[in-house]
Amino acid sequence: MRLLTLVLASILLSFGYIQAQNKNSNNLNFKNMINSDSYTFKLSDKVTREKVTFKNRYGIVLTGDLYIPKNHSGEMAAIAISGPFGAVKEQSSGLYANQMAERGFITLAFDPSYTGESGGEPRRISSPDINTEDFSAAVDYLGLLRDVDRQRIGIIGICGFGGFALNAAAIDKRIKAVATASMYDMSRVNAKGYNDSMTKEERTQLLEQMSQQRWIDAANETLTFKATGLPDSLTGNEPPFVKEYFDYYKTPRGYHPRSINSTGSWSFTNPATMMNMPIMTYINEISPRPILLIAGEKAHSRYFSEDAYKAAAEPKELVIIPNRVHVDLYDRVDIIPFDKLDAFFTNSLKK
């Protein structure tokens, strides 16, 4: 019983999911009013947005939104942005791209492989390798644009894609600066549980369950998906972080029909590769390129940013936003330190 509780609380928490009793499940009316072309934020009148596609090195076609300042001239600095884990470009990453383009950067918010409008089959899966590669593919695309100075490209990762962004920066030396917001290390939380609370025995049992599930999936020629996910309504007894996720993904504030976090759940065996491929191993090799880590003071995920800061070499900076939780950094434009991000990338990507 402890294993089930622990695994759900750690893995599903990291995905924005938790098993919760739903006494009043219903399809909220607002969902019928939101179509797949909807965005959770308003496009700045200082920015243009264009849908683009590009391939990663695995041949998966990724779809993104390219944001360009209307008053741009000459070769400019650019930023690729993705996350949160299970979200789509019409949510947080697009909001960040819109804000940073308004401040003078060419930005690309993209759906990672197997998610949103990007390619990859089957759906509702992830990969520490491929999702890291997705950032490098975005850098490929940006560096080929006429208006982008390929020596001045940075990346931003939100939530679980904060960890992938750091991993990408460690590998890909073309990335000149990296910032994260409400960062999660997906490999760590899956391998060790929330706050590293999973025992060796519990890890072994979980891997055994997923290993046996593969026989079932192979026989059925289809993936089995988790029965757990955010409910359509709350009982009031849920943990605070569940209410935070619900308030974003299940309400008009952040709901999107293509977002796994809004509408579905991950495959049962999805955590397996995350559990065995730590992505923070070489974070100190990002240096001498700068790192900016942003987290809420009261965020359940704060320790990931703090530990990443300790592991990274200089130059690095950790910014803690007072009295704020994990999801506040998804879309609260009055809370997210965009001026700080502007200054960080302006300085880091200067000619």
Automatic annotation (TrEMBL):
Any one Gene Ontology molecular-function term assigned to this protein's record: hydrolase activity
Gene3D superfamilies found in the cross-reference section: 1.10.10.800, alpha/beta hydrolase
Signal sequence bounds: 1-20
Coiled-coil blocks: none
InterPro entries: AB_hydrolase_fold, PET_hydrolase/cutinase-like, Polyketide_trans_af380
Keywords: Hydrolase, Signal
Residue ranges occupied by any PET hydrolase/cutinase-like domain in the UniProt entry: 51-188
PANTHER family: SUPERFAMILY HYDROLASE, PUTATIVE (AFU_ORTHOLOGUE AFUA_2G16580)-RELATED
Name of this chain's protein: Alpha/beta hydrolase
Organism in which the protein naturally occurs: Apibacter muscae
